[in-house]
Amino acid sequence: MKTPSELRYTEDHEWLRPEGKSGRIGITDFAQDQLGDVVFVELPEVGRAVKKGEAFGVVESVKSVSDVFAPITGKVVSVNQGLVDTPELVNQDPYGQGWIVELEIADDAEVQALLDAQAYAALQEGGH
Amino acid sequence: MKTIFEEHEAGRGTAYLPSRKVDLGAYLPAGEIREELPLPELSEVQAVRHFTGLSRRNYGVDNGFYPLGSCTMKYNPKINEDTARLAGFAQVHPYQPEATVQGALQLMWELQRDLGEITGMDAVSLQPAAGAHGELTGILIVRGYHESRGDAKRTQVIVPDSAHGTNPATAAMAGFEVVHVPSDERGGVDVEALRQLASEKTAALMLTNPNTLGVFDERIAEIAEIIHAAGGLLYYDGANLNAVLGHSRPGDMGFDIVHLNLHKTFSTPHGGGGPGAGPVGVKAHLKDFLPMPIVTMENGQFHLSYAAPHSIGQMRSFYGNFGVLVRAYTYIRALGGAGLREVADDAVLNANYVLSLIKDHFELPFDRIPKHEFVVAPPEDLVRQKGVKTLDIAKRLLDYDFHPPTVYFPLIVHEAMMIEPTETETKETLKAFADTLCQIVDEGRENPDYVKTAPHNTVVGRLDEARAVKQPRLLERLGG
Fold it and tell me: Which of A77, A80, B273, B378 is the most exposed place for a label (fewest CB within 10 A)?
């Protein structure tokens, strides 16, 4: 399972790529593997303000439906429209073309509080 | 196939309304009156062909094999339909005086007694309208029981990781915290883990036995002891009762509450949204918590009894899905005790026969002798190297006119296929299905793309099922 070192992670198996004032969010390689083939991604509206921990999207796979939680507080700057027609990008390229949402970062401290790659990898080995 | 609106042609309609004699303006606001009602106009034969055509695109157990794991898609004998249509059952009214519906009440009373006997329970409510509704009823009884004892700290319901999704959903809906107990390497409850989880917070354990892997938990007596020693109740999900009918009883295993799916084990119709029936049985100490009314008998007269001060209340209007109850009663009476026992024998034999034919061609996550159903996964090389997955195999089965098994459940098995043939299939059908499954595996190795794009012989190809649910198109603008 890939866990790129430049990203931050959550215990809910999501990643955040901070780039300046905003950051893209997706689900991890581990998450997509556990879910199986993704068949639908429900995206939030651009402009929506979300609180850390709030469910703001849905990833549906052949075997389950899972919420996407906001890893940090912020405003939705853009969403990956490509997932509307090709949700399988989440499986094929979870850290790249399979990104889900871009959030404007409200509080940088929240980003710093997320797991780093090493901590997230350790979490996976713990059997989650 | 065209929609009925697309078949419309002005002037073809066969329904003519009489000219209006009433001045509607005297009764309705002006904006609510319209002159045109553009319903589709078709000739009678067109309308008949349209709906007959739709019915022919249906697939049901009357068409062919339907091995949908956990759903027990057995054949529903047609005599059930005869009895359900008897005027004394079909044309009674729920508000009729008891004295005029003694036959209907007797049927309910006897069915309560029969289901109690079959499950080893002391009292039964026929009210819940489906399996999940029965679960909610059962868990509300759990809550009512603990509350009646002033035991407010029991906030957790333990559910195995192999459970039907309705179990945790039910517990959460009834306000409990769901705690998952893992499965052990044989597919049963990890008893040591359960021992750690059981506490003074435990309200109940919800268990299916045999479980969703089709394997019987032999340690059930120990499991029951752990939960009872902690002060919790044991809830039996009756989804898989077909496997043990007449052989073992949840009540004897130590369960306190059970729900049954009449539309699974007792041959009442599935699908189309129901109606189903999910009666709930309880041991004597929980009898007073059942939803009301219960049918009672006194001096040969049958009554609807509402006398239960601790009752969780009414779970459904009137007396449950009565027509479904008549069908289940008919099934039980037609087969009798020996026949019901044979149902389980044959259901288990059929599952094991299919498994024996395919086991060398599929992965077996738990290589045990199953009961009425079993779980396999496609061979590793097919999934990893060819990219042919369970979903593709399921879709390809449609080309051979078989209903696919349940797929991607239970969640603890990757690429799961859950196969339940039921007792009502011939050896030839079972063999044909098993051979087809193995053939599809071979096809997948030789020509993966063909399997990945299946089905090819059906009226529609592979559909975007997720979007059909998320973004359904349900409206048609009248008059184009």
Answer: B273
